[in-house]
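HUMAN: Spend a minute on the protein record below and explain its fold to me.
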Amino acid sequence: MHFSSLLQLQAFWVMVSSTLQYFPSSWGHYDVCKTEIYSEEGKKWDYMACQPESTEEMSRYQKVKLDPSDITCGDPPETYCALENPYMCNNECDASTPELAHPPELMFDREGRNPTTFWQSTSWKKYPKPLVVNITMSWNKTIELTDDIVITFESGRPEQMILEKSLDYGRTWQPYQFYASDCLEAFHMEAKTAQDLTQQRVLDIICTEDYSRGYVWKYDKHVRFEIKDRFALFAGPQLHNVASLYGQLDTTKNLRDFFTITDIRISLLRPATGATVIDEKNLSRYFYAISDVKVHGRCKCNLHANTCVFDGNKLTCECEHNTTGPECGRCKRSHQGRFWSPGSYLPIPKGTANICVPNISSIGTNVCDNELQRCQNGGTCQNNMRCHCLSGYYGILCEKHHCEKETGGCSTDSGQEAVLTSSSSLLIGVLCVLRLLTM
Protein backbone atom coordinates (compact mmCIF):
# COMPACT_ATOMS: atom_id res chain seq x y z
CA MET A 1 0.00 0.00 0.00
CA HIS A 2 2.79 2.35 0.90
CA PHE A 3 4.60 1.47 -2.32
CA SER A 4 1.45 2.32 -4.28
CA SER A 5 1.26 5.67 -2.50
CA LEU A 6 4.85 6.37 -3.45
CA LEU A 7 4.05 5.67 -7.10
CA GLN A 8 1.08 8.05 -6.92
CA LEU A 9 3.26 10.72 -5.33
CA GLN A 10 5.86 10.28 -8.05
CA ALA A 11 3.20 10.58 -10.77
CA PHE A 12 1.87 13.74 -9.13
CA TRP A 13 5.35 15.27 -9.01
CA VAL A 14 5.94 14.48 -12.70
CA MET A 15 2.64 16.18 -13.52
CA VAL A 16 3.56 19.26 -11.46
CA SER A 17 7.01 19.43 -13.01
CA SER A 18 5.65 19.23 -16.53
CA THR A 19 3.09 21.90 -15.74
CA LEU A 20 5.66 24.29 -14.29
CA GLN A 21 7.74 24.19 -17.46
CA TYR A 22 5.02 26.17 -19.24
CA PHE A 23 5.27 29.15 -16.90
CA PRO A 24 8.54 30.91 -17.67
CA SER A 25 7.80 33.69 -15.17
CA SER A 26 8.38 31.16 -12.38
CA TRP A 27 11.90 30.55 -13.66
CA GLY A 28 13.15 34.07 -13.03
CA HIS A 29 15.31 36.05 -15.39
CA TYR A 30 18.78 35.08 -14.19
CA ASP A 31 19.13 38.54 -12.68
CA VAL A 32 20.83 37.43 -9.43
CA CYS A 33 24.43 36.18 -9.44
CA LYS A 34 24.66 35.00 -5.83
CA THR A 35 22.73 34.88 -2.56
CA GLU A 36 23.86 34.34 0.99
CA ILE A 37 22.56 31.13 2.56
CA TYR A 38 22.97 29.45 5.92
CA SER A 39 24.03 25.85 6.45
CA GLU A 40 25.50 23.66 9.16
CA GLU A 41 28.88 25.11 8.22
CA GLY A 42 27.63 28.68 8.68
CA LYS A 43 27.04 31.41 6.13
CA LYS A 44 28.18 30.87 2.56
CA TRP A 45 27.41 32.06 -0.96
CA ASP A 46 25.06 30.22 -3.28
CA TYR A 47 26.13 31.09 -6.84
CA MET A 48 23.78 31.22 -9.83
CA ALA A 49 24.07 31.89 -13.55
CA CYS A 50 23.15 35.52 -14.25
CA GLN A 51 22.82 37.96 -17.13
CA PRO A 52 21.89 41.62 -17.70
CA GLU A 53 18.29 42.51 -18.48
CA SER A 54 17.33 42.67 -22.14
CA THR A 55 16.53 46.15 -23.48
CA GLU A 56 15.07 47.57 -26.66
CA GLU A 57 17.30 50.61 -26.35
CA MET A 58 20.56 49.09 -27.56
CA SER A 59 20.66 51.90 -30.17
CA ARG A 60 21.53 54.33 -27.35
CA TYR A 61 24.97 52.73 -27.06
CA GLN A 62 25.94 52.29 -30.70
CA LYS A 63 27.94 54.25 -33.23
CA VAL A 64 26.47 54.72 -36.71
CA LYS A 65 28.33 55.03 -39.98
CA LEU A 66 26.86 55.69 -43.44
CA ASP A 67 28.58 54.71 -46.66
CA PRO A 68 28.84 56.71 -48.83
CA SER A 69 29.30 59.43 -46.23
CA ASP A 70 27.57 62.10 -48.36
CA ILE A 71 24.43 60.04 -49.00
CA THR A 72 22.23 62.02 -46.56
CA CYS A 73 19.93 64.54 -48.25
CA GLY A 74 20.07 68.31 -47.81
CA ASP A 75 23.46 69.35 -49.18
CA PRO A 76 22.53 70.78 -51.60
CA PRO A 77 18.83 71.23 -50.69
CA GLU A 78 16.46 69.02 -52.61
CA THR A 79 12.71 68.67 -53.09
CA TYR A 80 11.13 65.20 -53.18
CA CYS A 81 7.94 63.86 -54.70
CA ALA A 82 5.66 61.19 -53.27
CA LEU A 83 6.14 57.71 -54.70
CA GLU A 84 2.42 57.12 -55.20
CA ASN A 85 1.78 60.60 -56.62
CA PRO A 86 4.49 62.16 -58.83
CA TYR A 87 2.72 65.54 -58.69
CA MET A 88 2.88 65.79 -54.88
CA CYS A 89 6.32 67.37 -54.48
CA ASN A 90 6.27 69.12 -51.11
CA ASN A 91 8.94 67.20 -49.18
CA GLU A 92 11.95 69.48 -48.87
CA CYS A 93 15.30 68.49 -47.36
CA ASP A 94 17.81 71.18 -46.36
CA ALA A 95 20.73 70.30 -44.10
CA SER A 96 21.26 73.95 -43.15
CA THR A 97 17.75 74.28 -41.68
CA PRO A 98 17.08 72.15 -38.55
CA GLU A 99 13.35 71.84 -39.29
CA LEU A 100 14.08 70.50 -42.79
CA ALA A 101 17.20 68.42 -42.07
CA HIS A 102 17.13 64.59 -41.91
CA PRO A 103 20.45 63.49 -40.33
CA PRO A 104 21.23 59.82 -39.44
CA GLU A 105 20.64 60.27 -35.69
CA LEU A 106 16.92 60.69 -36.39
CA MET A 107 16.78 56.93 -37.06
CA PHE A 108 17.47 56.36 -33.37
CA ASP A 109 15.68 59.17 -31.51
CA ARG A 110 12.60 58.51 -29.42
CA GLU A 111 9.47 57.67 -31.36
CA GLY A 112 6.09 59.33 -30.94
CA ARG A 113 7.03 62.81 -32.11
CA ASN A 114 4.67 64.73 -34.36
CA PRO A 115 5.66 65.19 -37.09
CA THR A 116 7.67 61.99 -37.36
CA THR A 117 11.44 62.43 -37.52
CA PHE A 118 13.51 60.38 -39.93
CA TRP A 119 16.78 60.06 -41.82
CA GLN A 120 16.54 60.49 -45.59
CA SER A 121 18.94 59.74 -48.42
CA THR A 122 19.56 61.72 -51.57
CA SER A 123 17.25 60.84 -54.46
CA TRP A 124 18.11 58.43 -57.26
CA LYS A 125 19.41 61.27 -59.40
CA LYS A 126 22.34 59.18 -60.71
CA TYR A 127 20.06 56.51 -62.21
CA PRO A 128 20.77 53.99 -63.76
CA LYS A 129 23.71 53.73 -61.36
CA PRO A 130 22.39 51.78 -58.34
CA LEU A 131 21.36 53.80 -55.29
CA VAL A 132 23.30 51.82 -52.66
CA VAL A 133 23.56 52.80 -48.98
CA ASN A 134 25.27 50.89 -46.16
CA ILE A 135 24.16 51.77 -42.61
CA THR A 136 26.51 50.20 -40.05
CA MET A 137 25.68 50.07 -36.33
CA SER A 138 28.61 49.18 -34.05
CA TRP A 139 28.56 48.55 -30.29
CA ASN A 140 32.24 47.75 -29.66
CA LYS A 141 30.80 44.99 -27.48
CA THR A 142 29.36 41.55 -28.02
CA ILE A 143 25.55 41.68 -27.92
CA GLU A 144 23.03 38.83 -27.62
CA LEU A 145 19.83 39.49 -29.58
CA THR A 146 16.61 38.77 -27.68
CA ASP A 147 13.83 40.00 -30.00
CA ASP A 148 13.12 40.93 -33.61
CA ILE A 149 15.17 43.60 -35.36
CA VAL A 150 12.60 46.07 -36.72
CA ILE A 151 13.34 48.80 -39.29
CA THR A 152 10.64 51.41 -39.95
CA PHE A 153 10.66 53.12 -43.34
CA GLU A 154 8.99 56.45 -44.06
CA SER A 155 9.58 55.97 -47.79
CA GLY A 156 8.49 52.88 -49.62
CA ARG A 157 10.18 49.78 -48.28
CA PRO A 158 13.20 48.91 -50.43
CA GLU A 159 12.78 46.42 -53.24
CA GLN A 160 16.19 44.94 -52.50
CA MET A 161 17.99 44.88 -49.17
CA ILE A 162 20.43 42.74 -47.17
CA LEU A 163 20.72 42.61 -43.38
CA GLU A 164 24.22 41.55 -42.31
CA LYS A 165 26.00 40.82 -39.04
CA SER A 166 29.54 40.81 -37.76
CA LEU A 167 30.86 38.91 -34.78
CA ASP A 168 34.39 40.33 -34.93
CA TYR A 169 33.86 44.10 -34.75
CA GLY A 170 33.32 44.61 -38.47
CA ARG A 171 36.33 42.73 -39.80
CA THR A 172 34.16 40.10 -41.50
CA TRP A 173 30.47 40.02 -42.37
CA GLN A 174 27.85 37.33 -42.83
CA PRO A 175 24.34 37.80 -44.24
CA TYR A 176 21.47 37.50 -41.78
CA GLN A 177 18.65 37.74 -44.31
CA PHE A 178 17.93 38.87 -47.88
CA TYR A 179 14.89 40.98 -48.79
CA ALA A 180 13.50 41.49 -52.30
CA SER A 181 10.31 41.97 -54.27
CA ASP A 182 11.59 39.10 -56.43
CA CYS A 183 14.13 36.90 -54.63
CA LEU A 184 14.91 34.76 -57.66
CA GLU A 185 15.69 37.75 -59.85
CA ALA A 186 17.57 39.78 -57.23
CA PHE A 187 19.59 37.11 -55.39
CA HIS A 188 18.98 33.84 -57.28
CA MET A 189 17.29 32.46 -54.18
CA GLU A 190 13.92 30.83 -53.65
CA ALA A 191 11.55 33.01 -51.63
CA LYS A 192 10.90 31.73 -48.10
CA THR A 193 9.62 32.98 -44.76
CA ALA A 194 10.77 32.41 -41.19
CA GLN A 195 7.78 30.07 -40.78
CA ASP A 196 9.35 27.73 -43.35
CA LEU A 197 12.32 27.08 -41.08
CA THR A 198 12.68 23.99 -38.90
CA GLN A 199 14.87 23.15 -35.92
CA GLN A 200 17.32 21.48 -38.27
CA ARG A 201 17.36 24.48 -40.67
CA VAL A 202 17.16 27.30 -38.13
CA LEU A 203 20.56 28.66 -39.19
CA ASP A 204 19.61 28.86 -42.86
CA ILE A 205 20.00 32.25 -44.52
CA ILE A 206 16.80 32.93 -46.46
CA CYS A 207 15.42 35.52 -48.86
CA THR A 208 11.94 36.79 -48.08
CA GLU A 209 9.49 38.79 -50.17
CA ASP A 210 7.18 39.55 -47.24
CA TYR A 211 8.54 43.05 -46.65
CA SER A 212 9.26 44.28 -50.16
CA ARG A 213 6.15 43.86 -52.27
CA GLY A 214 3.74 46.70 -52.89
CA TYR A 215 4.28 50.38 -52.21
CA VAL A 216 1.32 51.46 -50.08
CA TRP A 217 4.01 52.64 -47.70
CA LYS A 218 1.73 54.60 -45.40
CA TYR A 219 0.50 51.30 -43.99
CA ASP A 220 3.37 48.88 -44.64
CA LYS A 221 6.40 50.50 -43.04
CA HIS A 222 8.16 47.73 -41.15
CA VAL A 223 10.91 45.34 -42.21
CA ARG A 224 11.75 42.61 -39.69
CA PHE A 225 14.41 40.07 -38.96
CA GLU A 226 12.43 37.47 -37.05
CA ILE A 227 14.34 36.43 -33.94
CA LYS A 228 11.27 35.23 -32.01
CA ASP A 229 10.09 32.96 -34.82
CA ARG A 230 13.44 31.21 -34.63
CA PHE A 231 13.26 30.98 -30.83
CA ALA A 232 9.76 29.49 -31.19
CA LEU A 233 11.17 26.49 -33.05
CA PHE A 234 12.55 25.34 -29.69
CA ALA A 235 10.36 27.11 -27.12
CA GLY A 236 6.96 26.73 -28.78
CA PRO A 237 4.69 29.35 -30.45
CA GLN A 238 4.19 31.37 -27.26
CA LEU A 239 7.80 30.83 -26.08
CA HIS A 240 6.54 29.05 -22.96
CA ASN A 241 8.98 26.14 -23.06
CA VAL A 242 12.07 28.28 -22.63
CA ALA A 243 13.87 25.36 -20.97
CA SER A 244 14.15 23.69 -24.36
CA LEU A 245 15.54 26.87 -25.92
CA TYR A 246 18.04 27.36 -23.09
CA GLY A 247 19.15 23.76 -23.46
CA GLN A 248 19.85 24.30 -27.15
CA LEU A 249 21.70 27.57 -26.53
CA ASP A 250 23.80 25.86 -23.85
CA THR A 251 24.84 22.94 -25.99
CA THR A 252 24.95 24.32 -29.55
CA LYS A 253 27.63 26.95 -30.08
CA ASN A 254 26.58 27.70 -33.67
CA LEU A 255 23.05 28.48 -32.51
CA ARG A 256 24.32 30.72 -29.71
CA ASP A 257 26.64 32.53 -32.12
CA PHE A 258 23.82 33.01 -34.64
CA PHE A 259 22.01 35.32 -32.21
CA THR A 260 25.22 37.10 -31.16
CA ILE A 261 26.61 40.23 -32.84
CA THR A 262 29.08 43.07 -32.46
CA ASP A 263 27.82 45.00 -35.50
CA ILE A 264 24.76 45.15 -37.76
CA ARG A 265 24.78 46.42 -41.33
CA ILE A 266 21.72 47.40 -43.36
CA SER A 267 22.58 47.32 -47.07
CA LEU A 268 19.96 49.21 -49.09
CA LEU A 269 20.34 48.13 -52.73
CA ARG A 270 17.25 49.34 -54.59
CA PRO A 271 14.57 51.78 -53.40
CA ALA A 272 10.87 51.27 -53.80
CA THR A 273 9.75 52.14 -57.33
CA GLY A 274 6.12 51.01 -57.34
CA ALA A 275 6.38 50.00 -60.99
CA THR A 276 8.36 47.94 -63.44
CA VAL A 277 9.48 51.04 -65.34
CA ILE A 278 11.49 53.82 -63.68
CA ASP A 279 10.13 57.32 -64.20
CA GLU A 280 13.35 58.88 -65.43
CA LYS A 281 11.70 62.30 -65.74
CA ASN A 282 11.01 62.42 -62.00
CA LEU A 283 13.79 60.59 -60.14
CA SER A 284 13.05 62.59 -56.98
CA ARG A 285 10.35 59.98 -56.24
CA TYR A 286 12.97 57.36 -55.44
CA PHE A 287 14.91 57.51 -52.16
CA TYR A 288 15.26 55.87 -48.74
CA ALA A 289 13.86 57.26 -45.49
CA ILE A 290 14.07 55.47 -42.11
CA SER A 291 12.40 56.72 -38.92
CA ASP A 292 13.38 53.96 -36.48
CA VAL A 293 15.68 50.96 -36.04
CA LYS A 294 14.89 48.74 -33.05
CA VAL A 295 17.53 46.28 -31.83
CA HIS A 296 16.55 44.29 -28.73
CA GLY A 297 19.39 42.65 -26.85
CA ARG A 298 21.69 42.44 -23.87
CA CYS A 299 25.42 42.53 -23.23
CA LYS A 300 27.05 39.15 -23.55
CA CYS A 301 28.67 38.40 -20.18
CA ASN A 302 28.84 34.58 -20.41
CA LEU A 303 26.26 34.30 -17.58
CA HIS A 304 28.78 35.77 -15.12
CA ALA A 305 27.25 39.27 -14.65
CA ASN A 306 23.82 40.80 -14.16
CA THR A 307 24.87 44.39 -14.90
CA CYS A 308 26.35 46.04 -17.99
CA VAL A 309 27.40 49.68 -17.67
CA PHE A 310 28.08 52.33 -20.30
CA ASP A 311 31.34 53.86 -19.16
CA GLY A 312 33.76 55.85 -21.28
CA ASN A 313 31.64 55.43 -24.40
CA LYS A 314 31.84 51.65 -24.05
CA LEU A 315 29.59 48.92 -22.68
CA THR A 316 31.27 46.77 -20.03
CA CYS A 317 30.09 43.79 -17.98
CA GLU A 318 30.41 44.15 -14.20
CA CYS A 319 31.72 40.64 -13.70
CA GLU A 320 30.86 38.34 -10.80
CA HIS A 321 31.89 34.75 -9.99
CA ASN A 322 35.58 35.83 -9.73
CA THR A 323 35.71 36.44 -13.49
CA THR A 324 37.06 39.41 -15.43
CA GLY A 325 37.36 40.76 -18.98
CA PRO A 326 34.98 42.63 -21.33
CA GLU A 327 32.67 39.60 -21.47
CA CYS A 328 33.77 37.99 -18.17
CA GLY A 329 35.66 35.58 -20.36
CA ARG A 330 38.51 34.64 -18.04
CA CYS A 331 39.23 34.02 -14.37
CA LYS A 332 40.85 36.62 -12.17
CA ARG A 333 44.57 36.09 -11.71
CA SER A 334 44.10 34.91 -8.12
CA HIS A 335 41.24 32.56 -9.04
CA GLN A 336 42.65 30.20 -11.62
CA GLY A 337 42.30 27.01 -9.61
CA ARG A 338 40.55 25.46 -12.61
CA PHE A 339 39.82 26.34 -16.22
CA TRP A 340 37.38 29.16 -16.92
CA SER A 341 33.96 28.08 -18.16
CA PRO A 342 30.84 30.07 -19.12
CA GLY A 343 27.80 29.81 -16.90
CA SER A 344 24.93 27.55 -17.90
CA TYR A 345 21.19 28.24 -18.06
CA LEU A 346 20.51 24.73 -16.78
CA PRO A 347 19.15 23.44 -14.53
CA ILE A 348 16.29 25.92 -14.37
CA PRO A 349 15.64 28.18 -12.50
CA LYS A 350 19.12 29.05 -11.19
CA GLY A 351 21.40 27.52 -13.79
CA THR A 352 25.02 26.69 -13.02
CA ALA A 353 27.44 29.50 -12.19
CA ASN A 354 30.70 27.68 -12.93
CA ILE A 355 32.56 30.12 -10.71
CA CYS A 356 36.31 30.61 -10.83
CA VAL A 357 38.00 29.25 -7.71
CA PRO A 358 41.15 30.35 -5.88
CA ASN A 359 44.56 29.16 -6.93
CA ILE A 360 45.94 26.16 -5.05
CA SER A 361 48.67 28.29 -3.48
CA SER A 362 46.18 30.85 -2.20
CA ILE A 363 43.99 28.42 -0.27
CA GLY A 364 46.60 25.91 0.91
CA THR A 365 44.72 22.94 -0.52
CA ASN A 366 43.63 21.67 -3.87
CA VAL A 367 40.38 22.45 -5.60
CA CYS A 368 37.84 19.81 -6.56
CA ASP A 369 34.94 19.73 -8.98
CA ASN A 370 32.61 17.19 -10.47
CA GLU A 371 34.31 16.99 -13.85
CA LEU A 372 38.13 17.13 -13.88
CA GLN A 373 39.22 16.73 -10.27
CA ARG A 374 36.82 14.33 -8.63
CA CYS A 375 37.01 13.48 -4.95
CA GLN A 376 38.04 9.85 -4.59
CA ASN A 377 36.98 6.97 -2.33
CA GLY A 378 33.48 8.31 -1.77
CA GLY A 379 34.51 11.88 -0.84
CA THR A 380 32.25 14.78 -1.73
CA CYS A 381 33.27 18.15 -3.17
CA GLN A 382 32.16 21.13 -1.09
CA ASN A 383 31.78 24.53 -2.76
CA ASN A 384 34.42 23.60 -5.34
CA MET A 385 36.96 24.28 -2.61
CA ARG A 386 37.86 21.01 -0.91
CA CYS A 387 36.93 17.37 -0.58
CA HIS A 388 35.04 16.12 2.46
CA CYS A 389 36.48 12.62 2.94
CA LEU A 390 34.81 9.51 4.31
CA SER A 391 36.12 8.03 7.53
CA GLY A 392 39.40 6.28 6.91
CA TYR A 393 40.59 8.53 4.09
CA TYR A 394 42.42 11.84 3.83
CA GLY A 395 44.37 13.89 1.29
CA ILE A 396 43.57 16.65 -1.16
CA LEU A 397 41.25 14.39 -3.16
CA CYS A 398 40.70 11.76 -0.43
CA GLU A 399 43.20 9.62 -2.29
CA LYS A 400 45.08 8.39 0.80
CA HIS A 401 44.10 5.90 3.50
CA HIS A 402 44.83 6.62 7.16
CA CYS A 403 46.70 3.33 7.46
CA GLU A 404 49.43 4.85 5.32
CA LYS A 405 50.42 6.89 8.39
CA GLU A 406 50.79 3.78 10.52
CA THR A 407 53.98 1.76 10.93
CA GLY A 408 54.11 -0.91 8.26
CA GLY A 409 51.72 0.93 5.99
CA CYS A 410 48.45 -0.51 4.68
CA SER A 411 47.66 -4.18 4.37
CA THR A 412 45.94 -5.41 1.24
CA ASP A 413 42.68 -5.68 3.17
CA SER A 414 42.63 -2.11 4.50
CA GLY A 415 41.09 -0.53 1.41
CA GLN A 416 38.55 -3.34 1.09
CA GLU A 417 37.64 -2.92 4.77
CA ALA A 418 36.90 0.78 4.30
CA VAL A 419 34.80 0.09 1.24
CA LEU A 420 32.91 -2.64 3.05
CA THR A 421 32.26 -0.31 6.00
CA SER A 422 30.92 2.35 3.67
CA SER A 423 28.79 -0.19 1.78
CA SER A 424 27.44 -1.63 5.01
CA SER A 425 26.40 1.79 6.23
CA LEU A 426 24.60 2.44 2.95
CA LEU A 427 22.84 -0.97 3.11
CA ILE A 428 21.68 -0.35 6.69
CA GLY A 429 20.30 3.03 5.62
CA VAL A 430 18.34 1.50 2.75
CA LEU A 431 16.92 -1.26 5.00
CA CYS A 432 15.77 1.37 7.52
CA VAL A 433 13.93 3.30 4.82
CA LEU A 434 12.23 0.13 3.52
CA ARG A 435 11.14 -0.79 7.04
CA LEU A 436 9.58 2.63 7.57
CA LEU A 437 7.66 2.31 4.30
CA THR A 438 6.18 -1.06 5.31
CA MET A 439 5.08 0.03 8.78
The longest strand covers residues 133-145.
